[in-house]
Write a structure and sequence with these properties.
Order of helices and strands of chain A: HHHHHHHHHHHHHHH
Structural class of chain B: alpha+beta
Distance between the termini of chain B: 56 Å
Order of helices and strands of chain B: EEEHEEEHHHEHEHEEHHEEEEEEEEEEE
CATH superfamily of the largest domain in chain B: P-loop containing nucleotide triphosphate hydrolases
Oligomer: heterodimer
Strand content of chain B: 35-45%
Number of domains of chain B: 2
CATH class of the largest domain in chain B: Alpha Beta
Number of strands of chain B: 21
Radius of gyration of chain B: 24 Å
Number of helices of chain B: 8
Low-confidence stretches of chain B: none
Shape of chain A: flat
Helix content of chain A: over 70%
Amino acid sequence: MTTIADQLTIERRGHAGSAARRRTNFVIFLGPAILLTVFFFVVPVIIDITVSFTDLSRSLRISEFTTEQYEKVFRTDRRLSQVIGLTFIYVFGTLAIFNVTFGLILAITTTAIRNVSGSFFRGVWLLPRMSPSVLYILLWLWAVSPTEAGLVNQVFMQAFGLDAPLDLLTSAPIALIIISNGFIGASMGMIIFTAAIRGIPEHLFHAAAVDGAGTFATIRFITLPALRWPISFVTIYQTLSLLVSFEYILLLTKGGPFYDTTVYALYVYRRAFESGQYGYGAALALFLIVIGVIVALLGWRFFDMERLLQRPRIEVH
Amino acid sequence: MAKIEFRNVVKRFGAVEVIPDMNLVIEDGEFVALLGPSGCGKSTSLFMLAGIYLPSGGELLFDGHVVNEVEARDRNVGIVFQSYALYPHMSVRDNILFPLRFKKTPRDEALTKVKAVADLVRVAELLDRRPGELSGGQQQRVALARALVKEPQLLLLDEPLSNLDASLRLSMRTEIKSLHEQLGVTTVLVTHDQIEATTMADRIICMRAGRIEQVGTPDDLYLRPSSLFVASFIGSPPINLIAGEAEGGTVTVNGVRFPVDGASGSLTMGLRPELLRFGDTGFAGRIAQIEPMGREILYVVETGMGAVRVLEQGSSAGHSPGEEVKVSFLPENSLVFETERQKLIAGAHVRAPG
């Protein structure tokens, strides 16, 4: 026979045991993720902030702590406004033309045709994303080569009777970086939108057909409203990734001619590692983080993500 | 309003033939039910009427015109889906308005129509809500309103009551039936629930494996089922089927002898539980189980021929488990089928032993 006191002891011990287990589980399951976040996110940001308040440069010696880098960012760097303007054109152009609009068109068309051909075309559009970035850009360099051997020039000169080869890298560099990034970026939207379209209950399409809706009315009234959440997500996510990625531009144009295709992230890279102004690069990078956070928050507000996140995405019938 | 005709209609999905050869006429203004177990082709037939599926062969006629190739949106049919299929991001008003958008109805007139139909199905006070904020019964009414607002020549109902709870199902049954009486629109109901079919429809088309098993009024199907399938599908609790050999005017099953008129060979006797009764004569058995069903009581009687269900009126059980009883019936209440072909032998009856 056990007394009430005994039972309480047992209960308490049981609780103590489960509390210890909970702590162990916490360390086992979240520990690796926390370590990674600290080492590769928190520590770099702290280093970045520290470096941005120094005059660290090619000599790799810190002689003084200063706010001079921030004065440069906000006052003396004349090139910065041009870089920011270009970044806006690049991000907005790639998003509006490819990552959202073209991704949407791909998703809608490949789900409307037969499944086999739909999957084939989606597979084709995934290829650029799967190929190594250097290889992908090498192909582009060959395609837009300013000689007669370039693919684009071959097409224009033989099919459309153009006299002299075009030098697209010099004459239309911004369009080139938008297209080359867009061809890769469109596939992510395509996959997410395809999944969302597949998630729409089939009866809704049947109902719309019986109610008299044609193809475009069905897209407008059934498909697009169901894609509100994925479109918001892809827009915010891709804005952020476009803001900070520059490897394709670096490989394709090296930011040139001159600074014509140097977007913000690439500008940070060029200042820090090409000119060796590590302190200034750090200050610019910190400013980019601030811009990223502001953009994310604005997007969160604009698309009302909070409300979208709280409701189930797919209506289950 | 329209008269509907299936002429040798075939439907295949790839290599699978779902409907081999369907012939059926639905009169203008009629309320018919397509009844059958799942996978019998009843929903496929309905979707062909709606234009969602195209027939693979044969002809589908509305008022004498072949509509095989007419697109869903040009058929002027209204449909209520099992899941209701309301547009989740639109208000109830916009949902009901949706079909009128494509009929180019002027906005004022369209809104008047929406108001009228919403009054008819009693959802007028819900017009500003979203489907997600409605109960199942309300969604079902909105779906009806959306189907009716364009004044369709044909109203299709695909298992409309199966997602509702029992009491709501009962009231919606009455409401849909009276709506049909008011509007007179040709209506096709698809259901696997024989009670829904018998209570609502003027005529029932009982289907099995893509073929029409029997067409008739609810009474026809109950009193004169053409086959064992229809007999076992119609009626609740299900009919008792007892198979035996007839020789010299008597069907003998495990030693129990039923005198038979008008049939011989391998026979299956069909005895409805509600038409059996306990008495001093008849076949013997022992009560194995008692299921009170409110105003009726279902007895499961263990006999030499297997378990036999007997339904008795009354709310308190007159018998107790384990009790030895005798079960009899009136000859005219018995059905006799050929076991081999599973067909009814018209006019044949059996009598209870002893």
